[in-house]
Amino acid sequence: MIGWRARLGFLVPPGNPTVETEMIELAPPGVSLHFQRMVAHGIGGSLDGQNERNQMMIDHLGDSIELLAMVNPDVIVIAHTATSYHLGSEAEAALLARLHQASGVRIVTAFGAVSQSLQRLGVRRLALGAPYSAEVTLQGKAHLEANGFEIVNFANLPDVTNIYVTTTEDADRLARSIDTEAAQAVFLTGTGMPTLPVLEALEHDLRKPVISSASAMMWHALRSSGVRQPIPGYGRLLTLE
To answer: Where do runs of H (alpha helix) occur along the chain?
Structure first.
């Protein structure tokens, strides 16, 4: 593996068809990507039983990270934003500390990447869009607010029973529906909803930053690994150091 500029690990929910595709699309030359699936039973992406599967993935994080740490990544990203919403800030911080101590690898969450991204953009007032159930969407709103962000508008996609069947058209429609003049940026949460193809056009039309869990994860993982190469075509965030 000599010669790699960075080695990034992503811990991905089972059945999620989007994370690998989007991270591979974003990765600059010389960056090595490694993926490991989290553990959860049931129908992946289904809104029914989402909280139970979230807890199951959390319960097995140690084993999953132990396997991914074998490739010696510079950083491991828990590529599941709702993990943070489910845990809350204090429990998440304690869990990350334990996982880091056990693995010896820096570990960050998708939400941690989002928080760092919004701070880098100088954003505090957000419009939040989610493919989740109303319950989990409210958890996300509360978690953002607990971390100092103001949610000026929010919504979840109607009539969705499984996150993994959402499309970029869903992401585009959702972003446009939640945007308000008061929002400094639009955030599309959820790593299972594909977002990359629409971020640039949304920013052009809405005239403000639009980020997703995917764009934030790659930006933060690269910067955490010392890679500061701009990646144009996916919104302003990925062009910033």
So the answer is: 19-26, 50-59, 61-68, 81-87, 89-103, 110-121, 134-146, 168-178, 196-206, 213-224
Tell me: pLDDT of 1 over 60. Answer: no
The CATH number fitting domain 6-110+215-229, selected from 2.60.120.10, 3.40.50.12500, 3.30.160.70, 3.40.50.300: 3.40.50.12500
pLDDT tens track for 148-170: 999 999 999 988 889 999 999 99
Query: Which DSSP letter does residue 162 get?
Result: B
Q: How far is CA 208 from CA 102, 179, 202, in A?
A: 40, 10, 8
Name the residue with higher pLDDT: 225 or 48.
Answer: 225
pLDDT digits (tens, 9 = 90+) for 218-241: 999 999 999 999 999 999 999 998
Q: What is the Cα–Cα distance from 119 to 125, expressed in whole angstroms?
A: 11
Assess if CATH 3.40.50.1860 describes domain 113-211: yes
The phi-psi region of residue 104 (left if phi > 0; otherwise alpha if psi is between -120 and 50; otherwise beta) is left
